Structure formats: structure tokens, C-alpha cells
Amino acid sequence: MLEFIVLVLSIAFFFYTLLGGADFGAGIIELFTGNKSIRPIYKAIAPVWEVNHMWLILAIVIIFNGFPPIFAQMSVSLHIPLFIILMGIVLRGTAFTFRHYDTHVDGTHVYYHWIFRISSLLTAVFLGVTLGAMMYGRIDNDPNSTFYLQFIAPWFNYFCFSVGIFVALIFAYIASIFILGEAIEAKQVRFYGILAKRFSISMIIVGSVVLTLAYLYEVPFLSLALSAPISWAAFTGATILLPLIWRGINKNQLQLIRVFVALQIGLIMLGWAAAQIPILIHMKDGNHLTLYNSVAPDATLYYLTIALVVGSLSIFPSIYYLFRVVKFKSE
């Protein structure tokens, strides 16, 4: 049961990173490119942007029911970045809805644009900050600790914010590839192709900074990654795919590069999981929270498994049908 639950949780995180990440990345792209990207972004994400957050809801439900200590620890120790993430999701979704479906266009749309753009960037960054805090190993349960040590220090540092910027760049990179696949005009194809290359270069630079800071801060994740062959193989595979994606951009193989990018993101996540699992949260006192010491009772896992099986039989075909209708019909 545990293996199946972890599998579904992994699928949920993968699709949220790929599809939800593309949503956030679209806002980040618009922040840097301005109004010229609004129409391509509408075409790319308007039909499916709401359903993409279903994957996050699914992941939260699984963690809440299947791994309650993980949910509790994150909700307490990381409540500040999680609150910023929540507000960012609400604000960007509201702004996107108002500016896209509002029939009366006036000066308020300027505010909708900026709320959508800034909240997209902040949400992406703090998703990465939260991930960094889980790897950083400074989360402290000591009741005698100060407010700063318990609720600020675990995430307010250079390493966590470098992870946040890296995640934001990944999202922008994914979005540029997806929007590139939606582009029709040759000028748009060239523009988003160049943008995708620039974001990929930025990812490499910031990724190097993340590794450097991980070494300087003695982050436990780094030593685990260096000793995990699967992690090395996955990261190497993700790197090898980069020139293939660039070649596909140059040759306008727009659908092929989408597949390559999805595979690339999957390999990056596999590399992280191979180094991190079974540890989910590195604790300051060494009592790390893992898949095994944080799992719910067998009775809870049994009913959660049934719910996931039944839900999967309806969710996955419905998602496929949605994308088939609104994304692949014209191809």
C-alpha cells in the first residue's frame, strides 16, 4: 500500500511541477517580456490552468492523510513561506480570471497584469524556498528556541533562496517551451526559442550557485546526492537532454522538445528523490522525518489506497480527455 501511495504522490508532484510550473512560468515570462506575451499565454494556459492545481491538491491530501507528521511539521515550522505560496496562488488565479474573462476592459487590468506577474514569481520562488528548507536541515523542534530559530532561520538563508530562484527558472523554462509549441507565427517561434535557451543557461548558472552554497552550508542533501549513483545518472541524463532540446528548437521540432523537457524534468526530480528518499525533511536534531517513521496507521493507508485507486480511474481519463480536446485536437 505504501509503495502505491508514494507512486501516486510522485506522479502528482511530477505533473504539478510540469503543468503547474508552466503556469507559474508563464507569469514569470510575462514579467520580463511585458504585454507582448499576454495573448500567447492566454492561448497556452487559459483552457487548462485551473485543472493543473488539482495535482497540488492531490499531493496535499495524500501527505495530510498518509504522512501526518510531515504535514504537521511543515505547517508549523514553514508556515510563513507556505502562507506566501497560498496567497500567491490565490492572487495570481484571481488576477488571471479577472483580466481574461472580464468583458469590460479598463485601467484596472493594469493591476491584474502586475498581480499575476509578481505573484507568479513569488509563488515559484517560495515553493523552491520550502523545498530548500526541507533539505537544509535546520528545522528545529526545540520549544525553548526563539521565534527566529524556529520559524525564520530554517528557510531565510542564501541556500534556500538560491533553490527558490532555481525553481522559478525551471518553471520559466518549462513555460517558454510550452508556449513555443503553441506559437504559430515564425517571429513568435524565434522569440520563445531564444527565451527558452536563455532560461536554460540561467538554470545552469544558478544550479552551480545552489551546489556551491550547499557545500558551504554543509547541506545534508549534497553528500547524499554525491553518494547515490541513480542521482548522478539522472542528473547526467537531464544534462545530456539539453543540447537535444536546443537542436529541436533550432529545427522547429516543437512537439518533440515538449517530450524532451518533460523527460528532463522527470530526471531532475528522480535525481532529487534518489538522494533524498526515504528522508523527507532533514531535522536539526538528527531525528529526520522519513517515509517510514511518518507514515499513517495501516487502516488509514488502506482506505487512502482505495480512494486513490477509485479516484485515479476517473481523474486520469478525464485529464487525458481535457487535453485531447483543448490541446491536441488541432494537431
From TrEMBL:
Note the topology in the membrane: Multi-pass membrane protein
Quote any Pfam family the record assigns: Cyt_bd_oxida_II
| GO-annotated biological processes | aerobic electron transport chain
Q: Which domain of life is it from?
A: Bacteria
Q: Where does the record place it?
A: Cell membrane
Q: Which residues cross the membrane?
A: 6-32, 53-72, 78-98, 110-135, 155-179, 199-217, 223-245, 257-281, 301-323
Alphabetic keyword roster: Cell membrane, Membrane, Transmembrane, Transmembrane helix
Indicate where this protein is primarily found.
membrane
Name by which UniProt lists this protein: Cytochrome d ubiquinol oxidase subunit 2
Taxonomic source organism: uncultured Aureispira sp
